[in-house]
Amino acid sequence: MGKVFEKNVLKGEMNMETTIVQLNEWVVKLPKKLEVLSEAAASNRPVPKKWSPKEIVGHLCDSAIHNLQRFINVQHEKTPLALLPYKQDEWVELQHYQDTSMEEVVALWSSLNKQIASVLLHIPIEKHMYQFELGDGKFVSLQWLAKDYIAHLEHHIKQIDAQMPLGGKEDEKRT
Fold it and tell me: Closest Cα to residue 78, out of 132, 23, 33, 19?
């Protein structure tokens, strides 16, 4: 039994390490990807009620704020912790990302995600399987939540990619 547990613990460690590596890679890649956007392109909403690329990055900042708190709290509070949702549209609107320069929004996102990577790196392996309770009575581990954070990030990066201009022309979009 001990060897099976040991293998699972080591597997868990590798999974968290992979997640941290992926996050650190995005901290480098995303700002470079976004620097080609003019302020006008970064502020362009594809249709009313849809976020601009700048607002999507702002939403990712809000997600980082919430998840950073979760990654810290799960280490010192009684588990399972309830994973509480937040009003995403209201957060994006009230943070005024659309009125902030893309450079500032990206800098905030980078800083928050560097901190998340640091927090995740320092979580003892025995806490990787600490639990969160989803609203539907299901439970997920800290490790799962960290991986899901990357999946959420990549989902929104694909949305930004779809709004990126082709060939430097702001009216041409990827499909």
Answer: 132
Question: Which residue is listed with tokens 């999946």?
Answer: 151
Residues 74, 127: contact at Cβ < 8 Å? Answer: yes
SS3 79: coil
- Spatial CB neighbours of 57, under 8 Å, sequence gap ≥ 6: 30, 34, 97, 102, 105, 106, 109, 160
Residues of the chain with pLDDT under 50: 1-13, 168-175
pLDDT at residue 175, rounded to an integer: 36
Could you give phi then psi for residue 68, rounded to 5 degrees?
A: -60, -45
* Number of continuous H segments (helices) and E segments (strands) in the chain: 6, 5
Whole-model pTM above 0.90? no
Q: For residue 83, give the DSSP letter.
A: -
Q: How many beta carbons lie within 10 A of that of residue 104, not counting itself? A: 12
Instruction: Count other C-beta atoms under 10 Å from residue 137's C-beta.
Output: 6
Give the span between the Cα atoms of 147 and 16, in whole angstroms: 8
Residue 65, burial from CB neighbour count under 10 angstroms (0-12, 13-18, 19+): middle
Q: Mind listing the pLDDT tens digit for each residue in 45-90?
A: 999 999 999 999 999 999 999 999 999 999 999 989 999 889 999 9
